[in-house]
Amino acid sequence: MKRLFVDSFYNSKKKLNKWHGFNILAVDGTSIQVPDTIECGKYFGVSKNQNKTQTAVATASALYDILNDIIIDASITKFKTSEKELAKQHLDQINNEKLSKNSIVIFDRGYPSYEMFDYLDTKNMLFLMRVPSSFKTVQNIDSNDCILEYKIKRKYRKLRVIKIELSNNITEILVTNIFDENIKYDEFKELYFLRWGVESKYKELKSSIQIEEFSGTKPISIEQDFFVSIYLSMVVALIKDEADAAIADEIKDKNLKSMYQANRNFILGQVFNRIINLLVNAKLTRKILEIILEKSKKIRSQIRPNCSLERKNKNPRKKYHHNKKSCI
C-alpha cells in the first residue's frame, strides 16, 4: 500500500517542491520504544541504561522527502541494525524517475564512511553529509571549502569538504559530491538545515500520531501498527498539501499581513476518526478524503516563519500503554 501511495503521489504531482531544482531527501533513524516483554526483547533487542536495566527497543529508519512531506520508505527492525545498511535499503527502493534523478540526500553524522560515499557515487546519487571532526579525511583541513580525493576499491573519488559556522560559534563539517558551481558555499548551510524537517516528522510520529503506542504486544502487531502509523502520516500529508494549495490560491490577492496554512492537527484528528474505513473500505475512501479536504480548507493556522525545532532526546523511556493506541 505504501509503495502504491508513493508512486501515485510522484506520478500525479505536476509540480514538486524543490531546492535549486533538486528534490531534497533525508535519511534518519530513531529508537522506538516497544512493549517491554521477553518476546519483544528477543525479537527486536534490548537497550541498557546507565543503571544497567534492560528494556526492549526497536530501531526505525526512514527516507523522507522534506519539501513535499512524504515518507518514501520506512522500516522497523532490530535495535542494533546498522544505520548505513538501513539507509541503503531505503535508497535501493527508489524506482520513480522523478526521485532517482535530481535528488540530494542529506545525512547526519552517523552515516559517513568511505564505503558509503562510494555506494552513493556508484548509484549516481548526490549527497550532503555531516561528519565528526575526528573523521580522518577532514582532519588538518584549514579551508572552508575544498576538494580532496580518497581511494577506494583501487580507484580515486572526489569529495568536497565544507565548513560552516553556527550561531553558537561551533563549526560543522559537511562532505558532499555536489560540485555544481551554481550552488555557492553559503547555500550549503541552508541546505543542511533543511534536514531538520525529518526531525519534525519524527516528532509528529511520536507525539501526535503516537507511533510508540501499540494495540498489541506481539512483534507482528508492533510492525503492523508501525506501518499503519506511516500510512496515516502520508494521508495527512497528502490532504494538507491539497488544502494548502487551495488556501494559497484563495488568499493570494488579499494582501494579508500573515500567511495561512491548513491545520495539521485538525487533519490528523479527522483522519484518526476515520482510519478504519480508510483502511478497509475502498469504496468510501475517496468520499471520506474529499470531506476531510473540504473541512481542512476552512480550519487554518498562521504560518510562523523562522520557527526552530528543539533537538530530539534520543534516550527517553516512558511506560508502555498499549490501551492508549488511538483507533487502530
UniProtKB/TrEMBL annotation:
Tell me, what's a Pfam family for it? Answer: DDE_Tnp_1
Kindly list the GO molecular function terms attached to this UniProt entry.
DNA binding; transposase activity
Question: What are the entry keywords?
Answer: DNA recombination, DNA-binding, Transposition
Q: Which residues form the Transposase IS4-like domain?
A: 21-227
Biological process terms from the Gene Ontology for this record are: DNA transposition
Q: Which PANTHER family match?
A: TRANSPOSASE INSL FOR INSERTION SEQUENCE ELEMENT IS186A-RELATED (PTHR33258:SF1)
Report the family membership. Belongs to the transposase 11 family.
Protein name in UniProt: Transposase IS4-like domain-containing protein
**Native organism:** Clostridium neonatale
